Amino acid sequence: MNDSYALAVHGGAGTMRRGAMSAARAARYHAGLRRALQAGRDILAAGGGALDAVAAAVVALEDDKLFNAGRGAVFTTAGTQELDAAVMEGRERRAGAVAGILGPKNPVLAARAVMEHSPHVLLIGEGAAALCRKHGIAFAEPGYFRTPSRWRALREMLARRTRGLAGEGEDDDERRHGTVGAVARDRRGDLAAATSTGGITGKLPGRVGDSPIIGAGTYADNATCAVSATGDGEFFIRFGVAHEVAARIRHRSESLAQAAGTVIAELGRIGGSGGLVAVGRDGAPALPFNCSGMYRGYVEANGVVRTAIYDEPYRAG
Amino acid sequence: MNDSYALAVHGGAGTMRRGAMSAARAARYHAGLRRALQAGRDILAAGGGALDAVAAAVVALEDDKLFNAGRGAVFTTAGTQELDAAVMEGRERRAGAVAGILGPKNPVLAARAVMEHSPHVLLIGEGAAALCRKHGIAFAEPGYFRTPSRWRALREMLARRTRGLAGEGEDDDERRHGTVGAVARDRRGDLAAATSTGGITGKLPGRVGDSPIIGAGTYADNATCAVSATGDGEFFIRFGVAHEVAARIRHRSESLAQAAGTVIAELGRIGGSGGLVAVGRDGAPALPFNCSGMYRGYVEANGVVRTAIYDEPYRAG
Fold first, then answer.
1. What does DSSP say about strands B274-280 and B225-231: parallel, antiparallel, or unpaired?
2. pLDDT of residue A166
3. Record: contact B213-A208, CB cut-off 8 A
4. What's the confidence (pLDDT) of residue A36?
5. Which residues from A are below 8 Å from B251, CB to CB?
6. Number of structural domains, chain A?
7. Which of A224, A267, B10, B165 has CB atoms 3.0–4.6 Å from A249's, for a disulfide?
C-alpha cells in the first residue's frame, strides 16, 4: 500500500510575457502558490483527507488578491463579480459546485456545502447563497472582493472594445485564464479536486465557465486521477477536458502524464489555450499547459514545495 | 457515403407503474412523442440540418404540457419554475446552454441563442434572458408555464415532507425524471443533441441538473455520437454520462449500442436511475434505460415513427 501523499495547485494559465513581469511581482506569485501548497501539505502530512487539503489550498488562493478567485475576482461587463467553484472527491465521486454567486467569502467552501448539505451537485445564484447561510458558511461584504487592479482591467477592456480593438492588447493572462485549483491524494489513497474562479474580465453577466462544471474543469475518481483545469473555459466544457483525462486512463490504460499531456496538446491544436494540474492513483502529479505559462506548484515526496510560472526550472521553497 | 437521416427523442424516464396509467393517458404521451418525431423528421427528410431537427423536436415537447420542460415544467420548493436547456452540434462541437431561466417560451431556443450569439457556452438566470431579448427570442408570460397538475405535485410533495414521509409515494416518474431531449443525424452526417427540463419537483431554488451540463446530459461529436439523457441528474453529472458514451466509442471502439447500454447499466448498479437516447455516426439509434420506463421514440429509415413507454413493443405511428 502506497501511503504517500501528493498535492498540486495552479493559479491560472495564459499568454504571459516574461518581460512584462517584474522579479518582485513574480516573487509574490511564487509566495502565494507556496502558501497554498503549505496549507494543503500540512493537512496531508498529518494524515488528513484529500478533500480537506484541496479546500485549504484553494482557500489560500481565494484569499490572495493576486489570483482571480474569491478576493480579487474579475468583473463582468456590468461591473459585477460572479464567482464559480467546485469540489469533487474520488472515493464515491461525490461533487458540489456553485456558480454566479457573490457573498460566501470562500466560494470553494460554498461548493463543499452543496456537496455535503444538499442532494444536489450544482446550485446557482441566490439558491446557493441561501444554502450557505443555512449552514453557517462565512460571508464577506461585496467590497471585500473588489480590487483596484481588476476594476482597472475592466475599464481598459471596455475602452478597447469601444475603440473597436477587441482582442488587441488582451494578453493579460489573468483576464483570460484566471482560475485557481488544487488536486490531492491523501495517505489513504483518496483523491480530491477543487477549482475556483471569478471567470474572465468582461464576461457577460450570467456566464459560467468550466470551473464549476464537473467533468470540464474539475474531476476526481480514485480509480484514475483528480484534475483541476484552467484556460479557455468554453473549450474545456465542449471537450469535457477533466473527464477526458480520466477516460483515457480508464479506457486506454494511459499513464496520467500521457493522458493529461495528450488532452492539453490536442486542445491547443484546435485553439483552446490553458492547462491543468492532476494527481494519479499513485500520487504522481502532472502539470501540463499549452500556453506560455501557468502559475503552478506541487509538493515533492519529501515535503519540499516547488513552484513555477513559465516553462522553467521549478523553484524550491 | 451514408446519406440516411436518423432521429430519436425522449420525454423523461422513471419508475412508472403501468397500472397507474390509463390507456387514454398513455395515448396522449405516444401522440406527443409522435408530434415531436414528425417535426424533426420533416426537417431531416427535406435535407435540413440535425441541429434544426433536434431543436424542432424539443420545441414540440416543450410546448406540450404533458412533459416537464417549457410549458408544464415542475416547481421548486419556493413555488418558482426554473428551466434548463442545452444544444450541441457535432461538427465543431459547438454548444450552448441556459440554466435557471423563466421567460423564453422555448428554453432550447435560448440555449441555441447562447451558442450562436455569444462567445460563451453556459449562461444562467438574468444574463441568459438579456441575451435572448437582444436576439429576438420569443418570451411568454410566467403564467404560460404553470399547469395545475404540476402545482398539485409540489403541494403533495411538500405535504409528504411535512409529515416526514419524504421519499414515500414519490413514484411519479415526471417528478423525479422529467426531461425531454432529441438526437439526430442529418443526411450530411452531422450530429446534434438537445435537452430541456424543468428539473425535479421540490428541488431547491438554484438547483441545476444534468440537462444543461455539456458532457453530462447532452453531448454531440460527429466522430462518435449524439446523446441526450434523462434521469437522476446528479448521478449523470458525477459520472459524465453523455461524454462517457462518446469516450467508450472513441477509446474502446465499442459500438454505440454497447457503449450506451454499458454506461446506463453501470449507472443503474450504483443507484442512478434513468436512460438516454443516442444516434451514432452511421445513424443507428440506441435508447437504453435502467428503470421501468422511458417515454421515447425514433424514426425508422423508411420514415415510420415508432414510440414506446415501457419495455414493450414499439407502436408505429
1. antiparallel
2. 56
3. no
4. 98
5. 247-248, 251-252
6. 1
7. A224
Q: Of B119, B124, B237, which is closest to A100 when you measure between CB atoms? A: B124
Active site residue A80: no
CB contact under 8 A, B215 and A123: no
Report yes or no on A116 lying in a domain.
no
Tell me the C-alpha to C-alpha distance, in Å, between residue A46 and each of A41, A42, A186, A220, B111: 8, 6, 10, 22, 47
Collect all residues with Cβ–Cβ distance below 8 Å to B136 and sequence separation of at least 6.
none
Paired sense of beta strands B122-124 and B94-101, if any: parallel
The number of C-beta contacts closer than 8 angstroms across A and B is 138
Among the residues of B171-317, which ranges form H helices? 173-177, 233-238, 241-252, 256-269
In this prediction the ipTM stands at 0.95
pLDDT at A169 over 70: no
* Angstroms from B212 CA to nearest CA on chain A: 10
- Where residue A167 falls among pLDDT bands split at 50, 70, 90? low
> In terms of residue numbers, what domain contains A266?
6-77+139-316
B306 in any annotated domain: yes
In a domain, B310, yes or no: yes
- Closest Cβ–Cβ partner in B95, B124, B243 for A208: B124
Closest Cβ opposite residue A95 in set B119, B205, B238: B238
Nearest-neighbour CA in chain A from B180: distance (Å): 20
pLDDT of residue A48: 98
Asked if residues B183 and B36 have their Cβ atoms less than 8 Å apart, the reply is no
Q: Model pTM greater than 0.90?
A: yes
Which chain B residues contact residue A88 at CB under 8 A? Answer: 238
Asked if A208's CB is within 8 angstroms of B215's CB, the reply is no
Any idea what the CATH number is for the domain that residue B261 is in? 3.60.20.30
Q: B76, B77, B179, B197: which is the annotated catalytic residue?
A: B179
Grid-cell match 446550485, residue found: A123
Above pLDDT 70, what percent of chain A?
96
pLDDT-derived band at B161 (thresholds 50, 70, 90) equals: confident
The tens digit of pLDDT for each residue in B110-149 reads: 999 999 999 999 999 999 999 999 999 999 999 999 999 9
pLDDT tens for each residue of B242-287: 999 999 999 999 999 999 999 999 999 999 999 999 999 999 999 9
The mean per-residue pLDDT over the stretch A185-214 comes to 96
Specify the pairing of strand B191-197 against strand B180-185: antiparallel
Rounded Cα distance between B56 and B305, Å, is: 15
pLDDT at position A176: 59
Grid cell 460527429 is found at B222
User: Residues of A at the B interface (Cβ-Cβ below 8 Å)?
Assistant: 88, 93-95, 99-100, 118-128, 130-131, 203-209, 213-216, 219, 233-234, 237-240, 243-244, 247-248, 251-252
* Backbone dihedral angles phi then psi of residue B183, each to the nearest 5 degrees: -135, 145
